[in-house]
Amino acid sequence: MSSARTSHHGTDPKSGGASSVAPGDVLIRFEDVRKEFRNQTVAVTDLDLEVRKGELLVLVGPSGCGKSTTLRMVNRLVEPTGGRITLDGEDIMSTDAVALRRRVGYVIQHVGLFPHRTVAQNVATVPGLVGWDRKRTKARVEELLALVGLAPETYSKRFPHELSGGERQRVGVARALAVDPPVLLMDEPFGAVDPEGRRRLQSEFRRIQSELGTTVMLVTHDIDEAVQLGDRVAVFSKGGVIEQIDTPLRLLSQPANDFVENFIGSGRSMRMLGLGHVSRDDLRPLEHVHPGATLASIPLGTSLDEAFAELAVSETGGVLVTDGSETVGLLTADDLLASLRRLVAEDHRDAVAG
Ligand SMILES: Nc1ncnc2c1ncn2[C@@H]1O[C@H](COP(=O)(O)OP(=O)(O)OP(=O)(O)O)[C@@H](O)[C@H]1O
């Protein structure tokens, strides 16, 4: 994972450690940004926000709080009415809007693929606009399709109506990544996918993003998606106000105020469990297994919430943990709790070090 995974915090949950980040590590900066629409709706009041190079920053909050407006100001689909937004130090208002949009990928829920163009032609849209030759474009399209899990030989020539919703979403992601933009803006990108496909797509996307080192701002109203995907999560309230910006674990373990706590809602601890994974350090030796006991087994790397579900139905209070075909240890409820505590302590240590 890129260095962005190791987040550094200041002590102010609303700054998300802004003061501790070197200026060169910030890719997008919002300074006192305001957006008032013609009908006098103030969607964003006075926003200060820094997006660090290589991080995946999630904007989450209730409907109508200004998340999409904030996102769309970065590529000037919406123009700010006050303050300043810089991309790599350059004021976006003095950058040509078309050139800006070529540097900033944009993925929305209803992907907006061109219906009469094949998958390959859709992915090749921006390379075509910026004048890549055919050979380079073809190689890039194939590389990207493979990256998002769509075998080029099967999918290149299909049309959007010949794809499932999840496959269309993947094509949308591949298209947005085609010229390797330094920034990707994503507005509810996985919204159209069923829950199971969504989880898979989320984790695949996470892998791709960290491989490419793309800086991502992603909008969702789903707190589960936010804490699963984000290096940091900004919780918005009405008027584009940031109530807290922190790592997922800090957000869940130390909500800054009642608004954040209510927004996260019940199930905070289960969500925290979802952030951890069973590792060798959690296990006790196999001697602890009761002779004659029949235990379920789970692989190393299973998320702690799934491990918890197995433990909840285990008659002896333990599950075996495997690495490939080998059983490597026993996990009990106490071990699971210890693992969660360690996770929180490590995150806290990072925060203090930052
Ligand atoms: N073009 C527009 N003209 C006038 N008001 C607008 C416009 N676009 C958005 N708004 C208003 O600005 C506020 C913020 O909208 P925005 O779409 O940014 O919220 P959001 O947090 O992304 O919501 P959702 O999760 O429902 O998409 C809302 O009150 C919305 O009605």
TrEMBL record:
Which EC number(s) does UniProt give?
Answer: 7.6.2.9
Task: Give the PROSITE patterns listed for this entry.
Answer: ABC_TRANSPORTER_1 (PS00211), ABC_TRANSPORTER_2 (PS50893)
Q: Where is this region: Disordered?
A: 1-20
Alphabetical UniProt keywords: ATP-binding, Nucleotide-binding, Transport
Give GO MF terms, alphabetically: ABC-type quaternary ammonium compound transporting activity; ATP binding; ATP hydrolysis activity
Kindly indicate whether the keyword ATP-binding belongs to this entry.
Answer: yes
The superkingdom of the source organism is: Bacteria
- Location of the ABC transporter domain: 28-264
Top EC class per UniProt?
translocase
Asked if the Swiss-Prot or TrEMBL record annotates the protein with the keyword Transport, the reply is: yes
Tell me which family the UniProt entry assigns to this protein: Belongs to the ABC transporter superfamily.
Q: What is this protein called?
A: ABC-type quaternary amine transporter
Organism of this sequence: Sanguibacter biliveldensis
